[in-house]
Amino acid sequence: MIAYLFPGQGSQQLGMGADLFDEFKKLTDIADEVLGYSIRSLCLDDPERLGDTEYTQPALYVVNALSYYRLLEEGKPRPDYVAGHSLGEYNALLAADVFDFMTGLRLVKKRGELMGRVSGGGMAAVLGLGEQEVLDVLRASGLGSLDVANLNSPTQTVISGLREDVEQAKDLFMTANAQSYSVLKVSGAFHSRQMVDAQREFAEFAHQFELRPPVVPVIANVTARPYRRDRVVDTLVSQISSSVRWCDSVRYLMGKNVEEMVQVGPGRVLTGLVRSIRRKAEPLICTPEEEREAALLDVPPLRTSAPLAPAAAAPAPVAVTAPAPAASGAILATDLGSASFRRDYGLRYACVTGGMYRGIASPELVAAVARAGMLGFLGTAGQTVEQAEAGIRQLKQTLTGETAFGVNLVHDPRRAGWEEALVDLLLRYDIRVAEVSAFITLTPAMVRYRLTGLRREADGRVAPRHRVIAKVSRPEVARAFLSPAPARLVGQLLEQGRITAAEAELAAELPVADDLCLEADSGGHTDQGVALALLPSVRRLRDTVAAQYGYRQRVRLGAAGGIGAPEAAAACFLMGADFVTTGSINQCTVEAGTSDQVKDLLQDIDIQDTDYAPAGDLFEYGSRVQVLRKGVLFPARANKLYELYKRHDSLDGIDAATAGQLQTRYFGRTFDEVYQEVRAHHPAAEIEKADQDPRHKMALVFRWYFAYSTQAALSGSDEGRVDYQVHCGPALGAFNQWVKGTELQDWRRRRVAEINLRLLQEAADLMARRLLAVGTD
């Protein structure tokens, strides 16, 4: 049997990880995203910060993790047991699949920050005395602040406490015949009562995560026994102020006949300690009863006196709201959804972030999502082709290799030329996946994107070069995307020389879309659909159409709209969704391209704080969008404008009092001044029509308000604050309530990849618990 051992603080060294960061670039990018700085630069070029606890702990965690992943890639066996010294225990838990890389790093980042704040403490290593001898010296010394922090080997013990007491204790230990006494270069009294306040705060943070039971035994520092399946969070939290029982941990492994104990990570500290323990100590043999008793977490830290008051009162236990699932019933975030969806798009998770309009789904947002193993779409709606190209170029430069991302292609009946130009752009930059939305009927531009590059594989299958994920909310629109491209459009494109004869011939053998994203009630354009009705209905339609055309691969179905809490995501997957798409929750993150002022408004809304308003791009048709209501006047004013448009044939027909209110309170300028701005931003044909048709002129003037309100929100204009137009659905309210009272209540702590990953992780845990509970009540 083999055990992997992960080193802790003190093993860091400048240059560590130099041969790992390029090999594991995606994980390195994730680390940079979580930490907010370059892990490579920290480890290779910044010795001062590398020695600072706040930075040391994340650095060691990352390098330990990458070292472990390299072992696995080299074909080394998976461990039978794992253990880690202090900080290294987080890597042991990672290796045991208790959490994923990102979650572990977030925990370690918080741990390092909290422990790094505790000052005034010190630690010292005592060599040549046994555990009992060290305790006897401490009891006789009168230095009541000192605790035993680490029992590293039969003759190496580390003590911890107030710095002045640590320094005073040297003479006492040397008098007691210690071989040596070395004050360590640390910023605080780790693993002592001095850490209790930090431990309390860490408990609140750690309780946000529902950690999984280990898939292999993890030997806990606190007990020198395996983690209990139902006490993972409790054990991890208590480690901060408790003694590290490393010697007994190794003895326990010896008692389990573990022949090989391999240090994984920088240095050889643990290798030396294991050698010393094997030479000087006997295996620890436990009966099952003794093992269960020792794992109850009631083993106290090794202290010589009562804890200091008031800071060292015993930390409150971390409540566990429900038992974690057994390993046989465990569901991981990587298990959710369709394996073929993840494989075809090169993803780790079956999760998509939608392309929000006017650049809110920014290149920074999309890159963060892509690095985390999810699929993000760049938002191009309402942008110029030049702006869209700038975003694509930025992503192409930022994301390398096979990292997947896509671009949103939104149908705008008033801008057919823009749609054609955007497809040209997607083809020129070889964008392999598009999220197409707001299509009521198929257009030549969208079909051209789909058909360009079609080829027949050796096995006879037709393979697209460009994949399409179509957002739909109605069965009749779904049918259009489930069917092959209309022969009329295919013939038209062939005649124009925009596709080849081979591409036109192959078009009949595959649907227009690879995947449908079924959009229920959501932010922006919405048919106010219900996922519980939409998903099963379209699934049956999908199967009917597939049978009709004899497709070799099924069109996958995803779910969107209202997904802001783990319960919603879990429900979608349990209904059979192949993937989920999140939207509203992402615009209230650090990376989103809207203004800080909008994010301040959004972070506090509840599920009832949205409303429906006319859509500016389809104002005359009565199309509606879901928008923020709380704190703004936009929905009321926009609905008022539409009512006036329906009742009047021209601006002159509006009564004087109402016209005055619109010009002074809504627009802040006269109708004539608004129309002059309109003239400057619309094509000549549109203005000519408005000059001849008073009702069309009224529509253009009213539509100006929608453009103004959108720009005010994006820029954070104080002058236009009450007029902010913010597309948003109730999912964000559900998310806000889920994270209320945690660090994520503040949008400045919300990072898009982290919140989506947490949503998936907790959905997976919830599904596992609910499935295990079926029939038990």
Secondary-structure blueprint:
Elements: E1 2-6, H1 25-35, H2 39-45, H3 47-50, H4 53-73, E2 81-84, H5 88-95, H6 101-117, E3 121-127, H7 131-141, E4 147-153, E5 156-162, H8 163-175, E6 180-183, H9 196-206, E7 218-219, H10 232-238, H11 246-255, E8 260-263, H12 269-280, H13 288-294, E9 302-303, H14 339-345, E10 351-353, H15 363-371, E11 375-378, H16 385-398, E12 406-410, H17 416-428, E13 433-437, H18 444-451, E14 455-456, E15 462-463, E16 467-472, H19 475-482, H20 487-495, H21 501-506, E17 515-519, E18 524-525, H22 531-549, E19 556-560, H23 566-574, E20 579-582, H24 596-602, E21 610-614, E22 624-628, H25 634-647, H26 656-667, H27 671-681, H28 684-692, H29 694-715, H30 731-739, H31 752-773
Parallel strand pairs: 1-2, 1-8, 2-7, 10-11, 10-20, 11-12, 12-13, 13-16, 16-17, 17-19, 19-20
Antiparallel strand pairs: 3-5, 3-6, 4-5, 4-9, 14-15, 18-22, 21-22
Helix pairs in contact: 1-6, 4-5, 4-6, 6-9, 9-10, 11-12, 15-16, 17-18, 19-22, 23-31, 25-29, 27-29, 28-29
